Amino acid sequence: LRRFQQDGVLPQDADNAKLVTGFIAAVQGGYLLAQTSRDVTPMATAIDMSIAHLHLLAREQREAP
Fold first, then answer.
1. For residue 3, with 0-12 CB atoms within 10 Å meaning exposed, 13-18 middle and 19 or more buried, which class applies?
2. How many CB atoms lie within 10 A of CB 63?
3. Rounded to two decimals, what is the model's pTM?
4. What is the number of other CB atoms lying within 10 angstroms of the CB of residue 32?
């Protein structure tokens, strides 16, 4: 994520610590849900939503003046 910021993909004011925490929480929480339900769908959904948030930040960065 730092490299994405350095390369201008993510905004400089994005809080990397929070983004990483959210992504790891999505992976770990999704993994727990996948284990208990014996279905990978919850894990895939949690990770997809976390990645979608990063894409949204990147798009906002591209569109910023």
1. exposed
2. 7
3. 0.83
4. 13
**Residue 39 phi, psi (nearest 5):** -150, 130
> Of 63, 64, 62, nearest to 9 (Cα)?
62
pLDDT digits (tens, 9 = 90+) for 25-46: 999 999 999 999 999 999 999 9
Q: Tell me if residue 39 falls in helix, strand or coil.
A: coil
Triad 23, 25, 48: Cα angle to 5°: 50
For residue 35, the Cα-to-chain-centroid distance in whole angstroms is 21
Distance (Å, rounded) from C-alpha 39 to C-alpha 49? 17
Residue 10 DSSP symbol: S
* Largest separation between any pair of C-alpha atoms in the chain: 46
Query: Given pLDDT bands bounded at 50, 70 and 90, which one contains residue 64?
Result: confident
